[in-house]
Write a structure and sequence with these properties.
Number of helices: 5
Helix content: 40-55%
Structural class: mainly alpha
Number of strands: 2
Shape: globular
Number of domains: 1
Oligomer: single chain
Distance between the termini: 19 Å
Strand order of the largest sheet: 1-2
Order of helices and strands: HHHEHHE
Length: 145
């Protein structure tokens, strides 16, 4: 499961569809509707929020907006748009980590998108996140490979 801190506009089609599915799964976990993935580290930053389900609905709304902009047909009814907007923090180290991670994925599966993003000097966060200084998040699983 990967719930990107990066703006969904950077994802290729495969990544955007996977993000939609995985965030819907996260919504089920945070709503107590599934027993799987309850302790997944990617959910920790949402779990600590006062209303984690509102947060995940807000997150999903931006993914949905990106999908619609691309002409995809994601199911809007999966989102409760009656959420109270929040702003969450993401560290610059986390953003750098995710940027490298995404670019490696794109280099292997979508060369055209990879090349188009080479010119981006600083990737923007998902609209609900504000970048602050800091290292890679403690919930991130970093492999030394």
């Amino acid at each position: 499961m990967r719930i990107w801190s990066l703006h969904p506009k950077y994802l290729d089609s495969k990544g955007l569809v996977a993000l939609w599915r995985e965030t819907l799964l996260a919504k089920h976990v945070l709503s107590g509707k599934t027993k799987g993935y309850r302790n997944h580290p990617q959910l920790n930053r949402f779990k600590v929020q006062e209303n984690s389900v509102d947060c995940i609905n807000q997150y999903l709304s931006s993914v949905y907006d990106e999908a619609i902009q691309r002409g995809y047909n994601f199911n809007k009814s999966k989102i409760d748009f009656d959420f109270t907007p929040v702003h969450m923090k993401v560290t610059s180290g986390q953003m750098e980590f995710e940027t490298r991670h995404l670019m490696a994925k794109l280099d292997s599966r979508d060369k055209k998108r990879y090349q188009s993003l080479q010119a981006v000097s600083e990737f923007q966060p998902h609209p609900m996140f504000t970048i602050v200084g800091g290292e890679v998040a403690d919930w991130e699983i970093v492999s030394n490979a």
